[in-house]
Write a structure and sequence with these properties.
Distance between the termini of chain B: 36 Å
Strand content of chain B: 35-45%
Radius of gyration of chain A: 14 Å
Number of helices of chain B: 0
Strand content of chain A: over 45%
Structural class of chain A: mainly beta
Radius of gyration of chain B: 13 Å
Largest sheet of chain A: 7 strands, mixed
Distance between the termini of chain A: 39 Å
Largest interface: A-B, 22 and 25 residues
Oligomer: heterodimer
Order of helices and strands of chain B: EEEEEEEEE
Number of helices of chain A: 0
Chain lengths: 119, 108
Amino acid sequence: EVQLVESGGGLVQPGGSLRLSCAASGFTVSSNYMSWVRQAPGKGLEWVSVIYSGGTTYYADSVKGRFTISRDNSKNTLYLEMNRLRPEDTAVYYCAREGFLGDWYLDLWGRGTLVTVSS
Amino acid sequence: SYELTQPPSVSVSPGQTARITCSGDALPKKYAYWYQQKSGQAPVLVIYEDGKRPSGIPERFSGSSSGTMATLTISGAQVEDEADYYCYSTDSSVTHSVFGTGTKVTVL
């Protein structure tokens, strides 16, 4: 079955760190563009980061310099390393695969993992 | 930073037509995609390449784009179409993807 399963969310204090994982099955992470998207409670969707199949990475301005996207090809897993966390980073974090229909878009989503930044 | 602007809410009666707009400066050159998100669920693609419908999406969902505005239309809206809808595109530099501000559609 083709799916994405996120893990690693939880409660962390402001200024702390957390690493999210996204295990893929049914396809190869390293052959695809992979993204992280987040959604704060009661708020809209926010694109966070992407890693291209060639390894190039991009970040939203709101997380640049604090978050790092990476992958482990042997584990077929995507990661999001989050440092210097702020209360406004509280959100459900989704990993997603990018497909191409005219342009790049998000064609497969995980169910998300909740990150809460609070003292 | 690049922004896609949507109305916060649209309300229609069952069987009526709901139209959701998405405004962005790069839309004349970039495709718009539309996602439906029901409460507690991951988003689902309902329109791609401005106006194409993925398999399994009801024909009442359609899309169009003109200039800096894309539009999602739900013709004959059903109660089950109640959800949040987001447009999605990339900025002209292609390094950043962006979601619209989101529109809550109420059918009652």
